[in-house]
Prior knowledge:
By secondary structure, this protein is an alpha+beta fold. It contains four helices and six strands.
Amino acid sequence: MRLLLALVGLATGFVVPTFAQDTVDPKTAQQIHALAAKFNEEFKKQDPAALAALYTEDAVWDTYHGKFRGRQQIEKNFADWDFKRWKMHNWVTTISRVTRVGNEVRATGNWYTDLDGGYDKGHCTWILVREGDTWKIRRETMSAERWPTGINI
């Protein structure tokens, strides 16, 4: 039993520092959480241009219903699909982990939205880069828990 406890303690000693190295400084984490709050706010206003402005000009948005390239295409998707077709509202993105990857930051979390007649939710990952004093989304990958597979839109 003592040997087992010693091995568990030794293994924990190696694992904990590895996770600690993945965190960003508190200021950066706060900025990323503020970006998620801004995203939620602009979505609730149903402002596709303001939402698209949170992405880089060459951003890629890889969703469960398609891949959209560039700020202009992302804005069009918000306007035509999210707001007009699916009538999404009450969007909430919650970031649970922020890590540094080279010069970029990766934020992972969950999202939820109400739809006419229901809701949708899933997981998201943002790859973020600095543009001046602001973090922008360079790539977003989304999955959905409720979206049926193989659907054609």
